[in-house]
Design a protein that fits this description.
This protein is an alpha+beta fold. Helix content is about 30%, strand content about 15%. The strands form 4 sheets. The protein has a 6-stranded mixed beta sheet with strand order 6-2-1-7-17-16. It has a 6-stranded antiparallel beta sheet with strand order 10-11-12-13-9-14. Helix 1 runs parallel beside helix 10 and helix 2 packs parallel to helix 12. The longest helix has 22 residues. It is globular, with a radius of gyration of 22 Å.
Length: about 425
C-alpha cells in the first residue's frame, strides 16, 4: 500500500527516503511553489529558514551523537549536507541553497517516490499517512491535524539577521572558534563592560514588531528566544547565553572579553554572515540601529533582517502513541518539529523514526522502539511521555540514562554515553532487520 507523506521539509524528505529504502511506494505531497508559508521562500525541499548550522559533529556532544545515529539509519539529509558544507569550526554548517537543491534532486530521482505539488487540506485516517508538514502548515491542514490531535500548543520561533561580509569592519572582528576548535571559522566581536551595558540598555528599550493575532497567551520556546526578550531578563543574561565570552581571548588585551558576539558564515564563499543567537522580533530600523552598536557592525549591510513567527506544536504526550502514531488514527503518524523534536536535525531524525514505525505497522509487526540510551530513543520517549508542562526539546545528554558508574569529567562522561548509545543502536538495527 502506498504511503502518503505530507510536507517536503527535512522530516518529510527523510520519511519518504526511508520508506523508499524499505521497499514502499510513496506519494510526497508539497504545496510549494503554489503556496508558501510566511517563513519559506524557495520552491526546493528541505529549506532551511533560520540558521545554516546543523550544530556540532563531535561524537561526545549531543548534536554529534544524534548525527552519528542518523548516519547509521541512512539519513539522506546528512548525505547531502556532507556535499555542501561550509567552514564552521566543530559544527556542520551548509550552504543552504545547495543543500536544498541536493535534497530535492535526490528525492526527485527516487523511482519509489511520486511527487504531488498541491496543498493537502484533509487527512483520511484510513490511509497510511505521515504528517510532516511543519509547524507553519497551511490553515486547512492545521485544522485537519487539530481534529486528529485534540488541540495544538503554540510557541514562538525566530530567525537571526544576516549581514554582508564586505560591509563589516574587519579591523574590529577577530576570526576564531571557541577553545580553538576547528580553526578560525567564526568572526568574533568583543564588547568591553561599558560598551556591553550601553548595548544592553538600547536593546531592552528598542521597539518590537506587532505580533497581531498571536500576541495572546505567549509561550516562547527557550531555544529560539528573541535576543531582546532574553536581554530583558537581566543585564547579565546574554553574557551567560549567546554572548558568553568563554573559550575566547581578546588579542588587544590578552584576556577574556567582557562579552562576545559571534558571526557564522552563511555560505561557502564567506560573503554573508549570520549573527549567532540573535533571533529577534525588533522592527527592521531598530535592528539596524541597535545591532550596529556591535563593534565591527557600525556600517553593516543587512541582507536579511530577523523575523519572528508563531509555530504550532502537537501536545504530543496526549495526542501521540509511543510510535508517533495518532491515538485517534493509528494509521496516521506525525513527524518533524510539530511533534516536539526541536531543531533541524532533530526534525529530520523524527522523519526517519516515523517512517520506520510506519514500515513496522504495514508489515503487521509490533513497534520496536529504539533503546532509551540512544539519542533518538531518548527524544522519542520525551515527546510521547506524560508531561504536564510539555515543551519541544532538542538533543541533549541530559535525556540519556546515567552511566552505571559516575564519571566526573564531563567530556569523558559524554564520550562514554555516546559509545554506549552507538553500540546499543547497532544491536537494535540488527534486531529490526
Amino acid at each position: 500500500m502506498r504511503v502518503r507523506v505530507i510536507g517536503a521539509g527535512l522530516a518529510g524528505c527523510e520519511a519518504a527516503h526511508t520508506l523508499s529504502a524499505l521497499g514502499h511506494q510513496v506519494l510526497l505531497v508539497e504545496m510549494k511553489p503554489k503556496k508558501f508559508t510566511p517563513a519559506h521562500r524557495s520552491p526546493g525541499f528541505a529549506e532551511l529558514v533560520c540558521s545554516n548550522s546543523l550544530k556540532a559533529e563531535r561524537l561526545e556532544s549531543a548534536a554529534g551523537l544524534m548525527k552519528a545515529e542518523m548516519r547509521l539509519y541512512g539519513s539522506v539529509c546528512l548525505q547531502c549536507a556532507d556535499l555542501c558544507r561550509v567552514p564552521a569550526g566543530g559544527a556542520l554548517a551548509v550552504e543552504r541553497e545547495s543543500f536544498s537543491r541536493l535534497v530535492t534532486e535526490k528525492i526527485e530521482a527516487d523511482r519509489n517516490i511520486e511527487l504531488l505539488r498541491e496543498e493537502q487540506t484533509s487527512i483520511d485516517p484510513a490511509l497510511p499517512t505521515i504528517v510532516a508538514a511543519g509547524p507553519l502548515m497551511s490553515e486547512a491542514l492545521a485544522g485537519a491535524v487539530e481534529r486528529l490531535s485534540g488541540g495544538f500548543l503554540s510557541f514562538y520561533d525566530a530567525a537571526a539577521p544576516i549581514v554582508l561580509a564586505e560591509s563589516l569592519d574587519m579591523t574590529k572582528l577577530h576570526p576564531a572558534s571557541r577553545y580553538g576548535r576547528g580553526g578560525e571559522d567564526y568572526l568574533n566581536s568583543y564588547f568591553d563592560k561599558p560598551g556591553y551595558e550601553s548595548f544592553w540598555r538600547e536593546l531592552c528599550s528598542a521597539e518590537t514588531a506587532p505580533l497581531h493575532d498571536f500576541e495572546k497567551d505567549q509561550q516562547v520556546y527557550e531555544g529560539c528566544m528573541p535576543i531582546e526578550k532574553l536581554a530583558k531578563r537581566g543585564q547579565e543574561t546574554m553574557r551567560f547565553g549567546p554572548l558568553k565570552p568563554v573559550g575566547l581571548r581578546d588579542p588587544a588585551t590578552g584576556r577574556r572579553p567582557w562579552a562576545a558576539v559571534q558571526l557564522r558564515r552563511e555560505n561557502r564563499e564567506g560573503s554573508m554572515f549570520n549573527l549567532v543567537g540573535f533571533q529577534t522580533n525588533l522592527k527592521f530600523p531598530e535592528q539596524k540601529r541597535v545591532f550596529s552598536m556591535i563593534p565591527g557592525l557600525e556600517r553593516a549591510e543587512f541582507v536579511r533582517y530577523g523575523v519572528m513567527h508563531r509555530n504550532s506544536f502537537l501536545n504530543s504526550p496526549k495526542a501521540l502513541s509511543p510510535d508517533l502514531s495518532f491515538r485517534s488514527a493509528p494509521l496516521v503518524f506525525a513527524a518533524g518539529q510539530i511533534t516536539g523534536f526541536e531543531g533541524y536535525m532533530e526534525s529530520a531524525f523524527c522523519g526517519i523514526l516515523a517512517a520506520r514505525f510506519m514500515d513496522m505497522k504495514l508489515r503487521g509487526r509490533q513497534p520496536l522502539l529504539p533503546p532509551p540510551d540512544t539519542m533518538g530513543g531518548a527524544l522519542l520517549r520525551y515527546v510521547t511521555a506524560e508531561n504536564r508542562d510539555f515543551q519541544p526539546m532538542g538533543a541533549n545528554m541530559g535525556l540519556l540514562p546515567p552511566l552505571p558508574e559516575a564519571v566526573r569529567d564531563r567530556r569523558l562522561r559524554y564520550g562514554a554515553l555516546a559509545e554506549r548509545a552507538m553500540s546499543s543502536l547497532r544491536r537494535y538495527l540488527e534486531d529490526v532487520k
